[in-house]
């Protein structure tokens, strides 16, 4: 039967830290990604452009399994919440474009793992704010929540490291835009 469990797992070490160090947006119509037998992404489409957003503070990714035994369905809800500091005209324009589009998103954790949310369907910005804050210590910037629904969990990027989520990909060229 294709849904039989195929492996176990021993207790893992306590060497992880929580949080995200960056996300990378990819326009939806980028093309097909190559995967290995473990469903890890091994190559991006040729000429891919990714847009890096460095993160600090309150940023998180959560994937939720949604199953209905009655309906015989299972899907995975991918949720990303981010804060982007500092208001400016350029970022406000990009924020609007993120809200209008449905990008694919590479999530790069502080542990060095990276995975691709929205592989087939993309991710939608389902909530967002542009805020000046009120008290001196309040966030001046943007908050956004992105949600994707996929048939399968987010695919890990093969060989990602803390320094480079794309380190082991076999893609001919990936352009990373940082500013």
Show the helix and strand layout:
Elements: E1 20-26, E2 34-35, E3 41-43, E4 48-54, E5 60-68, E6 73-85, H1 89-100, E7 104-109, E8 114-117, E9 124-131, E10 141-150, E11 155-156, E12 174-177
Parallel strand pairs: 4-12
Antiparallel strand pairs: 1-4, 1-7, 2-3, 5-6, 6-10, 7-8, 8-11, 9-10
Number of helices: 1
What is the chain-wise order of helices and strands?
EEEEEEHEEEEEE
In angstroms, what separates the terminal alpha carbons? 49 Å
Strand order of the largest sheet: 11-8-7-1-4-12
Overall, the morphology is globular
CA radius of gyration is 17 Å
| Content-based structural category | mainly beta
As residue ranges, the low-confidence spans are none
Largest sheet: 6 strands, mixed
Number of self-contained structural domains? 1
Total strands: the figure is 12
Percent helix among the residues? Answer: under 10%
- Beta percentage is 35-45%
Q: Average the pLDDT over all residues and give the rounded result.
A: 92
Describe the structure.
It is built from one helix and twelve strands, in the order E-E-E-E-E-E-H-E-E-E-E-E-E. By secondary structure, it is mainly β. A hairpin with a 5-residue loop joins strand 2 and strand 3. The chain is globular, with a radius of gyration of 17 Å. Helices cover 7% and strands 42% of the residues. The longest helix is centred in the middle third of the chain and has 12 residues, at 89-100. The strands form three sheets. The chain has a six-stranded mixed sheet, with no helix packed on it. The protein has a four-stranded antiparallel sheet with strand order 5-6-10-9, with helices on one face. It has one domain (35-43, 51-177).
